[in-house]
Amino acid sequence: MKIFQALEKAEALLKRERISTPRLDAEVLLCHAIGKDKHYLYKNPGKVLNDNENDLFQALVERRRGREPVAYIVGKKEFWSLDLEVTREVLIPRPDTEVVIEETLRISDELNKENLRILDVGTGSGAISIALATQLKDSTIVAVDSSMEALRIARRNAEQYEMGERIHFLCGNLLKPLSEKFDIVVSSPPYVSEAEFERLPDEIRKFEPKGALVSGKDGTECYRELVEDAKYLLESGGWLVMEIGWGQAEAIGEIIRNDGSYGDVLFRRDLGGRKRVVSARIGG
Ligand SMILES: C[S@@+](CC[C@H](N)C(=O)[O-])C[C@H]1O[C@@H](n2cnc3c(N)ncnc32)[C@H](O)[C@@H]1O
User: Fold this and answer.
1) Sheet bearing 234-243, strands edge to edge
2) What CATH number is attached to the domain comprising 130?
3) Fewer CB within a 10 Å sphere, N or C end of the chain?
4) Distance between CA atoms of 10 and 30, rounded to whole angstroms?
5) Closest CA to 153 of 56, 200, 88, 109
6) What confidence tens digit (pLDDT) does each residue in 111-152 have?
7) Does residue 122's CB lie within 6 angstroms of at least one atom of ligand 1?
8) How many domains is the chain built from?
9) Is 150 in the pocket of ligand 1 (CB under 6 A)?
């Protein structure tokens, strides 16, 4: 089969399964199967695939038809222009989380301090820590996760970008393993309720780790603990920065204000205008 025929066939199969981006997915999977980039596909539509390439491509398309996310099939995902390894042991980094990076960089400018100490809680693939380490060259970062498997992937990602020395990985429950002080505590914690989890699309519910998604009955358990515990770890004037789910701004804002230890509480919106990141300064 030629490249253009293989793509057309795969696109039709994925469309039939109501996959939202059938052509794009087919192209990414074919690139992965034959070890070439998209430019090669466009330049060589008439190239005949050999049996191995064809068999591998069909197998990848079958996995996608079963709703497995493309990132898990190809084993990587781009985040903040970094190519990160992902497996089913880590959440696939979302473009929305880049708003957390933007807000943390804004705060680091405002703090205008050398050798910032940053804590990333629930690091998953290491996306936030590695992105911040590449931007804030003299910062030191501690990255915590309760999943040893996630930390294994995060470490590999950090080493790939030569950040293994700058990021210290730690296994534990939120802020519990720590006693040292930080200028910024940043987190993209689980924020889905048990009930919402059951309604998530198969692509997420069946493939991504439940422990990376669900946070108690109403989805706010991790936020409550982070707000309560971060104040003991933040330097005076330090900031807590957290990604929040759609529609959670009011509830999380209230948790922070009720705590009474934080002053400025700011929300940052995503490109769609939704409040997706909250930052709060200790002491105000
Ligand atoms: C929503 S994912 C975010 C992953 C990554 N920061 C990102 O933005 O792609 C949440 C992460 O928190 C971790 N996690 C969940 N509960 C935790 C806990 N109690 N203590 C530490 N990490 C936890 C999960 O294993 C998962 O890696």
Assistant:
1) 167-171, 140-145, 117-121, 182-187, 234-243, 275-282, 262-269
2) 3.40.50.150
3) C
4) 9
5) 88
6) 999 999 999 999 999 999 999 999 999 999 999 999 999 999
7) yes
8) 2
9) yes
Ligand 1 and 124: CB distance under 6 A: yes
Query: pLDDT exceeding 70 applies to what percent of the chain?
Result: 100
Residue 248 alpha carbon to ligand 1 centre in Å: 18
Structure tokens at 241: 């920065």
Q: What element of type H or E holds 144?
A: strand 140-145
126 lines ligand 1 (CB under 6 A): no
Whether 83 is in a domain gets the answer no
Q: 102 and 27 in one domain? A: no
Say whether pLDDT at 207 is over 70.
yes
Is 57 within the bounds of a domain? yes
Contact 108, 185 (CB under 8 A): no
Q: Whole domain around residue 57: which residue ranges?
A: 3-66
Q: To the nearest whole number, what is the mean pLDDT of the chain?
A: 96
Q: How confident is the model at residue 283 (pLDDT cuts 50, 70, 90)?
A: confident
Q: Do 142 and 225 sit in the same domain of this protein?
A: yes
Residues 129 and 266 in one domain: yes
Question: Is the confidence at residue 284, as pLDDT, over 70?
Answer: no
Which residue has tokens 């006693």? 179
Note whether residue 75 is domain-resident. Answer: no
Q: How far is the CA of 241 from the centre of ligand 1 (A)?
A: 14
What whole-number percentage of the chain has pLDDT above 90?
97
